[in-house]
């Protein structure tokens, strides 16, 4: 869905229309872009659980009215009582994709608190009003959620909390069926009353930590209490006369800047006849991430180092492709605030661990750790794993030009690259988000790197990618496998906003009050 307007109060685009409406209501009530983003993010944790939940992580780029751009890292940490040796003894060379040992301390709620303190104008309770209502009264099950339940039914049925929430009475929720979450509504009410600390040191913290520990988690109350999100310097590059600002490690923003540098270095027509060369650039970025991306606080390389690194000769063993996993949202307001925010549980329904008492679903970001002691991303207590997440802002000098956000797992840098290239070529947000898309996958179990490509991608692009040596996996038009993007264009005439047709989303430009 697309919406444009001149001289508006603000704009918001998200992957679910009810979240967009919650954010737009915050703008209409006089809030700014941060207020809108917080209301929408909380709502998404209710209406889009295959993609995001209270037990997930968050990253964001925020531009203040003074023009300062800051990066917020609210990615979670590994429990202090867990060890690499213990995990290797249990699992061997690779962590499982899901389950209790893939759950890291959820960082998202602490991230909400940092955003609130940084620039929100509405109260903490107001941020959660729509989310509480959606959980208590119920919402129609979204298309994406219903499809994900079918896809992930086997793993969901292994967990009593997931089974009760998503497969009640032995039947998966179907699109349009009422989805009511009373336990989650109660947790959101506690969070509204107690603020972010309630999630980390309050009674709510005691409940979810106890629930996880009963399942064998090593996360302790002290891990939750000690967790902090932090503000950091963003990673910045340039392309086409614009400043491209994204997240530094442990996020994947460097891959976007690597791709843009490759284009500048000699890829003509990257979304046409040069698509094969661009695919090779994406493949190189994926390989560098798999081999080297890690928590800089624990000795991982910097963003500039990752951008400059040559592609590894041999990619590390499997990097499983997440399904579902994430929501991105974009928001701007006329007072000068702008935010690109990503909230995530990683794989579809995260770890597939839902605490029945609190209704909280938990991420599986811990599966991204390596169990190779020599890896820069090796598991260690208190360490943050490498992340696929990456927010983006595009500026023209000091002026905001575009606010994009996307989900898509490891393909997020590739989706952002395609959005930017199309936007700079004159595409509207609707045209950029609705255009045919393709992505370079991580190596499969057979070691082959394939390209997932929508059936309506032009023949010229297909041929170029095939000639570059990539086998094609053709999927239907507007497949969720190609991510959910959101995009706002900012100009002197106002805002133009669009949400990806691959999602259940919408975009709203809120007009100025009369």
Your description of this structure?
With 514 residues, the protein is of the alpha+beta class. The protein has one domain. Helix content is 35%, strand content 20%. It has 19 helices and 21 strands. The strands form 5 sheets. Strands 1-20-19-15-14-9-8 form a 7-stranded antiparallel β-sheet. Helix 2 runs parallel beside helix 6, helix 14 (253-264) packs antiparallel against helix 15 (275-292) and helix 15 (275-292) crosses helix 19. The radius of gyration is 21 Å and the shape is globular.
Short description:
The protein has one domain. It is α+β, with helices and mostly antiparallel strands. The mean pLDDT is 94.
Layout of helices and strands, plus pairs?
Layout: E1 2-5, E2 8-14, H1 17-28, H2 33-47, E3 57-63, E4 69-74, H3 84-91, H4 108-119, H5 124-127, H6 129-137, E5 139-140, H7 143-151, H8 153-156, H9 160-166, E6 178-179, H10 182-194, H11 196-200, H12 203-214, H13 221-226, E7 230-232, E8 235-239, E9 242-246, H14 253-264, H15 275-292, H16 303-308, E10 326-333, E11 338-344, E12 353-355, E13 360-362, E14 392-396, E15 399-406, H17 412-424, H18 429-434, E16 438-440, E17 451-454, H19 459-467, E18 472-475, E19 485-491, E20 494-499, E21 506-511
Parallel strand pairs: 17-18
Antiparallel strand pairs: 1-20, 2-10, 2-21, 3-4, 3-11, 4-7, 5-6, 8-9, 9-14, 10-11, 12-13, 14-15, 15-19, 16-17, 19-20
Roughly how many Å apart are the termini?
25 Å
Rg, alpha carbons: 21 Å
List the domain count as a whole number: 1
Give the number of DSSP strands. Answer: 21
Please outline the major beta sheet.
Answer: 7 strands, antiparallel
Helix content: 25-40%
Q: How do the strands of the widest beta sheet line up side by side?
A: 1-20-19-15-14-9-8
| Morphology call | globular
Percent strand: 15-25%
């Amino acid at each position: 869905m697309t919406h444009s307007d001149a001289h508006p109060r603000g704009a918001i685009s998200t992957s679910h229309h009810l979240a967009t409406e919650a954010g737009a209501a915050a703008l209409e009530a006089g809030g700014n872009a941060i207020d809108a983003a917080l209301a929408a993010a909380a709502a998404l944790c209710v209406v889009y659980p295959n993609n995001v939940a209270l037990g997930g992580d968050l990253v964001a780029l925020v531009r203040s009215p003074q023009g300062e751009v800051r990066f917020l890292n609210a990615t979670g940490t590994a429990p202090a009582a867990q060890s690499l040796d213990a995990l290797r003894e249990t699992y061997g060379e690779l962590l499982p994709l899901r389950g209790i040992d893939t759950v890291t301390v959820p960082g998202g709620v602490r991230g909400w608190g940092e955003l609130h303190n940084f620039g929100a104008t509405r109260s903490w309770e107001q941020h959660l009003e729509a989310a509480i209502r959606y959980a208590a009264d119920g919402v129609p099950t979204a298309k994406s959620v219903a499809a994900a339940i079918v896809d992930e039914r086997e793993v969901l049925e292994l967990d009593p909390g997931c089974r009760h929430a998503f497969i009640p009475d032995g039947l998966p929720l179907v699109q349009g069926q009422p989805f009511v979450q009373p336990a989650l509504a109660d947790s959101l009410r506690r969070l509204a009353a107690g603020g972010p600390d309630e999630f980390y040191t309050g009674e709510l913290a005691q409940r979810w930590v106890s629930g996880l520990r009963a399942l064998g988690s090593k996360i302790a109350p002290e891990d939750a209490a000690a967790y902090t999100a932090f503000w950091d310097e963003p990673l910045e590059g340039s392309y086409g006369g614009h400043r491209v600002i994204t997240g530094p490690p442990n996020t994947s923003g460097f891959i976007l800047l690597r791709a843009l540098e490759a284009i500048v270095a000699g890829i003509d027509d990257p979304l046409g006849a040069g698509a094969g060369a661009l695919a090779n650039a994406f493949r190189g970025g994926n390989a560098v991430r798999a081999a080297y991306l890690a928590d800089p606080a624990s000795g991982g390389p910097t963003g500039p180092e990752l951008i400059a690194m040559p592609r590894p000769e041999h990619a590390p063993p499997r990097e499983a492709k997440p399904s579902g996993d994430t929501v991105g949202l974009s928001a701007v307001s006329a007072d000068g605030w702008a935010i690109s925010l990503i909230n995530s549980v990683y794989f579809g329904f995260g770890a597939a661990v839902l605490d029945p008492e609190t209704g909280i679903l938990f991420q599986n970001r811990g599966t991204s750790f390596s169990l190779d002691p020599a890896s820069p991303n090796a598991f260690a207590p208190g360490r943050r794993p490498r992340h696929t997440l990456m927010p983006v802002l595009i500026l023209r000098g000091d002026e905001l030009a575009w606010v994009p956000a996307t989900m898509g797992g490891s393909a997020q840098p590739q989706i952002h690259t395609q959005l930017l290239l199309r936007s700079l070529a004159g595409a509207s947000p609707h045209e950029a988000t609705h255009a045919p898309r393709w992505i370079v996958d991580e190596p499969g179990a057979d070691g082959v790197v394939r390209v997932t490509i929508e059936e309506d991608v032009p023949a010229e692009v297909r041929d170029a990618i095939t000639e570059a040596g990539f086998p094609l996996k053709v999927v239907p038009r507007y497949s969720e496998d190609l991510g959910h993007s959101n995009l706002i264009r900012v100009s002197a005439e106002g805002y133009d906003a669009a949400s990806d047709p691959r999602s259940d989303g919408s975009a709203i430009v809120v007009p100025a009050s009369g």
